[in-house]
Amino acid sequence: xxxxxxxxxxxxxxxxxxxxxxxxxxxxxxxxxxxxxxxxxxxxxxxxxxxxxxxxxxxxxxxxxxxxxxxxxxxxxxxxxxxxxxxxxxxxxxxxxxxxxxxxxxxxxxxxxxxxxxxxxxxxxxxxxxxxxxxxxxxxxxxxxxxxxxxxxxxxxxxxxxxxxxxxxxxxxxxxxxxxxxxxxxxxxxxxxxxxxxxxxxxxxxxxxxxxxxxxxxxxxxxxxxxxxxxxxxxxxxxxxxxxxxxxxxxxxxxxxxxxxxxxxxxxxxxxxxxxxxxxxxxxxxxxxxxxxxxxxxxxxxxxxxxxxxxxxxxxxxxxxxxxxxxxxxxxxx
Length: 334
Description:
Layout: H1 2-26, E1 80-82, E2 86-91, E3 94-100, E4 104-106, E5 124-127, E6 146-148, E7 151-153, E8 156-158, E9 161-164, E10 170-172, E11 177-185, E12 190-197, E13 201-208, E14 210-211, E15 218-219, E16 224-227, E17 238-245, E18 248-250, E19 256-257, E20 262-263, E21 267-270, E22 291-293, H2 300-306, H3 311-317, E23 330-332
Antiparallel strand pairs: 1-4, 2-3, 5-21, 6-9, 7-8, 9-17, 10-16, 11-12, 11-15, 12-13, 13-17, 14-16, 17-18, 19-20, 22-23
């Protein structure tokens, strides 16, 4: 009997233990909802709490400038933007500025600055080249024979110097800088390139047969930028070469001895007198022509009387051989 009671007690204990073990898999876990942690950097070392400043890339002539913003969705339309472009070189432990561009970047318009040269009343010292910074100069052509000078062309002004060349001759950058415009103008420069230089000047090269650079490209003095031609408004192969300051052209003869194929000096002083031609430009000739439409019953005498002229003048103005006129005829009366 004792054995039987002990057996039942043992069986009960085993059953109870198995039941408790099974509860571990059947009862849902009762976890607390996670509390929102506050941002903290208490455990983060102080030296990595702040992202390090970007390292300045420095001056690399082969590096495509990232500070120039171009709208690549329609590169032909170009873009006008206000930018500050500074190139620096690291000397010892310091960054030294070697070049600073204009604050306006426009890859479409030759003169986006809107500066009236008649307001220029100061002198500006321009260092054309600097051998210590490896910023040199070069002639735009191997030989610089002048075909036509800067100055008046009758009813219009010629803003550049025309240099003789043969189609296909290489055209070179005059100074170190960056390509601002590569375009085509049918009624003027044809295929042309405009460069912006470290020295503050801009140079324009017109009537090319082929352009070999692109907007935003850095160039060194002497780099080939295109081939000579006679595109646009041109009567024969030549290079139309302009030098500009803040969008306004001035006579490049003050910089170059074209016959001697050299620069006149390293330092050039730009003066108000270099823009004095602005007041010398001739105004375009304008005339006013008046026409009369002949009505039924009109005579030359009556028309002449009403317009304060004579029959002979009317016949001469309109190349008439007789006094016979017809309704609807258009006659010039002044």
